[in-house]
Amino acid sequence: MAVPQARARGWAAAARVAQRRRRVEGTGGPPRSEPASQRAALYVHWPYCEKRCSYCNFNKYIPRGVEEAAMRKCLVTEAQTLLRLSGVRRVESVFFGGGTPSLASPHTVAAVLEAVAQATYLPADSEITLEANPTSAPGSRLAEFGAAGVNRLSIGLQSLDDTELRLLGRTHSAGDALQTLAAARRLFPGRVSVDLMLGLPAQQVGPWLGQLQELLRHCDDHVSLYQLSLERGTALFAQVQQGTLPAPDPELASEMYQGGREVLREAGFRQYEVSNFARNGALSTHNWTYWQCGQYLGVGPGAHGRFVPQGAGGHTREARIQTLEPDNWMKEVMLFGHGTRKCIPLGRLEMLEEVLAMGLRTDVGITHQHWQRFDPQLTLWDVFGASKEVKELLERGLLLLDHRGLRCSWEGLPVLDSLLLTLLPQLQEAWQQRTPSLVPGG
């Protein structure tokens, strides 16, 4: 543990040096009043796993061996490059995702954090999250990640039923999961999140709700409920297609989700987003940046980002995707300083569509002030206030549009996808009426 602790001290020292440099340059210390264009979250993708789960189609790889020193150097280099390109002066959260980032060395986590602290302002109380799988994160290793700078864990528990865990291709048992969860809570009290899946083949409502009740006897203050999505190219998809497994029942999945919401609400959890529940204020501030359409930089193979490249003289927000395959990504980083494979400028209507779709995922919804950050002229009332279709949704109690803004009700949040089928065309129509096409025929 000596080296991670040294790294953590290095991060803290780098933060102090950077803060002194800003004072010397007249920028005045922690830039809490800086505009949103100079603040961002940072996502770091670790692409490797021990094995591929049967439901997973994420960008992950099962390596014969990982040259971690090379990967660490490239993660640091790309983080430095993207921070410089973005002109970001304050990183508000860092999230190490994957893949299985708990397979990475704590030295790698510390090196990235140290580089970020040297390049920009990383507050000492920033949320630093690491995704962890139970079999790759015993208590001693979790302590090393804590010494490296991690202060929040997201544990991929997925199920408390060993048969279901085998079906999902997980490498841990329910006992392993609970043991890791207990160790995590001792090390990071109040800052441990767990994932639980629903809607698996042959899964029934009662036993699944029993799992959730059991989890509540062991968990911390953040729970995420995710419905299984059968993705083409995965082992589960093939088994269902071949008839060796029954197709998941969407009606049963809906019952599980609704029942789970009620159980968590009774246990004092706030459903602050479609899939995420927290109590005692334990919201994920990193994910909140996504839902509020804040800037985020994506570092690592296949990582996604959205930011304005102010440091490179840009003025338009861009969606960026890094090269997927790790070896090719590393070659590009070594040649160019980053591995950005695709860079897509986002138009104003695209931004508003994203604000609408992402903001309505939260219980706060979209405030008038938040909407006006992205369009000061076209208000929420202008877009939705006179719509007969929207009025019907308001009368059915699925939506609320008032002095606070636009948001889903408790009944509307589970059916957000169907609400967007009405809301997005309404936004597009309002946009076209405000900015009619100059091309004949539209």
Automatic annotation (TrEMBL):
<keyword id="KW-0349">Heme</keyword>
<keyword id="KW-0479">Metal-binding</keyword>
<keyword id="KW-0411">Iron-sulfur</keyword>
<dbReference type="InterPro" id="IPR006638">
    <property type="entry name" value="Elp3/MiaA/NifB-like_rSAM"/>
</dbReference>
<dbReference type="GO" id="GO:0004109">
    <property type="term" value="F:coproporphyrinogen oxidase activity"/>
</dbReference>
<dbReference type="InterPro" id="IPR034505">
    <property type="entry name" value="Coproporphyrinogen-III_oxidase"/>
</dbReference>
<dbReference type="Pfam" id="PF06969">
    <property type="entry name" value="HemN_C"/>
</dbReference>
<keyword id="KW-0949">S-adenosyl-L-methionine</keyword>
<comment type="similarity">
    <text>Belongs to the anaerobic coproporphyrinogen-III oxidase family. HemW subfamily.</text>
</comment>
<keyword id="KW-0496">Mitochondrion</keyword>
<dbReference type="InterPro" id="IPR058240">
    <property type="entry name" value="rSAM_sf"/>
</dbReference>
<keyword id="KW-0004">4Fe-4S</keyword>
<dbReference type="GO" id="GO:0005739">
    <property type="term" value="C:mitochondrion"/>
</dbReference>
<dbReference type="GO" id="GO:0051539">
    <property type="term" value="F:4 iron, 4 sulfur cluster binding"/>
</dbReference>
<dbReference type="InterPro" id="IPR010723">
    <property type="entry name" value="HemN_C"/>
</dbReference>
<dbReference type="InterPro" id="IPR004559">
    <property type="entry name" value="HemW-like"/>
</dbReference>
<keyword id="KW-0143">Chaperone</keyword>
<dbReference type="GO" id="GO:0046872">
    <property type="term" value="F:metal ion binding"/>
</dbReference>
<keyword id="KW-0408">Iron</keyword>
<comment type="function">
    <text>May be a heme chaperone, appears to bind heme. Homologous bacterial proteins do not have oxygen-independent coproporphyrinogen-III oxidase activity. Binds 1 [4Fe-4S] cluster. The cluster is coordinated with 3 cysteines and an exchangeable S-adenosyl-L-methionine.</text>
</comment>
<protein>
    <recommendedName>
        <fullName>Radical S-adenosyl methionine domain-containing protein</fullName>
    </recommendedName>
</protein>
<dbReference type="InterPro" id="IPR013785">
    <property type="entry name" value="Aldolase_TIM"/>
</dbReference>
<keyword id="KW-0809">Transit peptide</keyword>
<dbReference type="GO" id="GO:0006779">
    <property type="term" value="P:porphyrin-containing compound biosynthetic process"/>
</dbReference>
<dbReference type="GO" id="GO:0020037">
    <property type="term" value="F:heme binding"/>
</dbReference>
<feature type="domain" description="Radical SAM core">
    <location>
        <begin position="34"/>
        <end position="270"/>
    </location>
</feature>
<dbReference type="InterPro" id="IPR007197">
    <property type="entry name" value="rSAM"/>
</dbReference>
<dbReference type="Pfam" id="PF04055">
    <property type="entry name" value="Radical_SAM"/>
</dbReference>
